[in-house]
Amino acid sequence: MTLPVFPETYIDLLPEVRAFLGEELKLYIGGRWVPALSGATFETVDPSTGRVLARVPSAQAEDVDAAVRAARQTFDSGAWHLKLTASERGRLIWRLADLMEAHAPILAQLDALDNGKPVKKAQTVDVPLSADHFRYYAGWTTKIEGATIPVSTPGMFNYTVREPIGVCGLIVPWNYPLLMAAWKIAPALAAGNCIILKPAEQTPLSALYLARLFEEAGFPPGVFNVLTGYGETAGAALVEHPGVDKIGFTGSASVARTIIRNSASTLKRVSLELGGKSPNIIFADADLEQAVVGATWASFGNNGQSCTAGSRLYIERRVFDRVVEGIADEVAKIRVGMGMQAEQPDLGPVVSGDQLNTVMGYIQDGYASGAHSVIGGKRLGGALADGYFIEPTVFVNVQDSLKIAREEIFGPVVCAMPFDDADEVLRRANETPFGLAAGLWTRDLATAHRFAAKLRAGTIWINTWGDTDAASPFGGYKQSGHGREMGKEAIDLYSEVKSVWLRAD
Fold it and tell me: Using CB atoms within 10 A of its CB, is residue 52 exposed (0-12), middle (13-18) or buried (19+)?
């Protein structure tokens, strides 16, 4: 393959990245690098320039079947969850985290090229958090335990054990390619499962490179497999395959509905981390300077391409104009540019041409519905015209009933809306089919505790936004998903409970 040509403003690509992009990329199945059996490939594109980065295999049903057979053979042999001790598994997972840190510049450049995010943020946030995730779950391998239960039957001894589910198909999104993969892979491994990872077709590169690190770390063949391909082919075949015991999915609610329907014939376990339309509430008594900066980045962090984006911004009416003006001033300082340019921007492009069209469609619908933008609202041109760049956009004059206030946009758009009292805003905040996250800014502890109790969302942030930790569970209410990732809850998500009865008399 001919190496891609990059703009002169890009930072120097690492030799390892250049070499990787120049290779014939293959699927990773059963510890071997193999082409798709059909020979089909697809292009992955740099969203900063619209130029092709590489061609990757397009896995079809027959490739999924090969990966499932490899994972099943390894699982049934016990090579991972039985023949290795829990300590040995933990050391291998920790070794993987060490390798991720050693290869952090490479992983960061691959995600920055494939996703468009600033490479500095990928290297200082995405990769370290991914490595930390593996380290946290490396510690869990020796702490998965059951219980003895004082049953009422005389002379009977009852105990429980936790066992791995088996073969897990993990389907991850494009907004945090490496980090979202780590969120699923790490607890699944710690619980003793074998894995088939299907990265998003928009961002397959870091997943393929991660497979090399699994190989270098010394994991048994078949424990970790990577299939690049489209959701409609590779993803669908993974969901429907009878040899897959569990599907873990992060993505849209519409795709999740398809997954649930298509998994029904095998009744496999399914966990879902889906979207949101998160309310972010600013009370007049808040530290407004802190709230303005927090609300800005709650909306525009990762270019708004976050399931927890605080895209419904409710501001107490008596400070509404002041807060909106402050947010507009903060937005005006945001530098948008190519993720790999030497002068690092704050935000890169949205991930693809399709996503550009989707977000711009919402913006146009907002204007047509009577909303006004106080800043932003256009696609960026000039030197950025070939990429998928959108100005960070703040809408006012928005009613709760408008499409831009109800639907997840997954782009740099926020709707600022006034409110008059606490009961009103609590009702409005909860009037959504989603429930992934919510937040509020106030100095009043009674208000903070009341809203933490009554907001219907899986994560509540108070005087902050976006904090996560591998030890703290994450997931949603309502149509924002099933199950919890991170923390002990993720171990439960990837394991089964077995009850054992023994007559002791």
Answer: middle
Answer yes or no: 273 catalytic.
yes
The band of 1, judged by pLDDT with boundaries at 50, 70 and 90, is low
Angle between helices 127-138 and 177-190 (to 10 degrees): 10
Q: How many CB atoms lie within 10 A of CB 27?
A: 26
395-415 per-position pLDDT tens digit: 999 999 999 999 999 999 999
The pTM is what?
A: 0.96
The domain 279-469 is classified under which CATH number: 3.30.230.10, 3.30.70.260, 3.40.30.10, 3.40.309.10?
3.40.309.10
The alpha carbon of residue 245 and the mean position of all alpha carbons in its chain are separated, in whole angstroms, by 22
Tell me which CATH code domain 15-274+481-499 carries: 3.40.605.10
Answer for the pair 14, 109: CB distance below 8 angstroms, yes or no. yes
CB-based contact 409:431 (threshold 8 Å): no
Residue predicted with more confidence, 42 or 8:
42
* Buried-state track 291-312, b at ≥16 Cβ within 10 A, e below 16: bbebbbbbbbbbbbbbbbbbbb
Q: Fold match between 15-274+481-499 and 279-469?
A: no
**Chain segment 352-397, per-residue pLDDT in tens:** 999 999 999 999 999 999 999 999 999 999 999 999 999 999 999 9
Domain range annotation of the chain: 15-274+481-499, 279-469
State the chain's mean pLDDT as an integer.
97
* pLDDT band of 2, cuts 50, 70, 90: low
* Residue 83 pLDDT class (50, 70, 90 cuts): very high
For 165-192, write each residue's pLDDT tens digit: 999 999 999 999 999 999 999 999 999 9
Strand 156-164 vs strand 167-171: parallel, antiparallel, or unpaired?
unpaired
From the list 240, 273, 391, 485, the catalytic residue is: 273
Whether residue 65 is predicted with pLDDT greater than 70 in this model: the reply is yes
Residue 239 and residue 227 in contact, taking contact as beta carbons nearer than 8 Å: no
Nearest residue to 436 via CA among 457, 453, 417: 457
CA dihedral 239, 195, 351, 124 (to 10 degrees): 160
Could you confirm whether 307 is annotated as catalytic? Answer: yes
Task: Determine the Cα–Cα distance for residues 166 and 5; give it in Å rounded to an integer.
Answer: 43
Query: What CA–CA distance (Å, rounded) separates 13 from 442?
Result: 45
DSSP state of 481: E
Residues in the chain: 505
Whether 413 and 395 have beta carbons less than 8 Å apart is answered as yes
Pick the catalytic residue: 194, 307, 330, 415? 307
CA distance 433 to 99: 41
Residue 168 near residue 196 (C-beta atoms within 8 A): yes
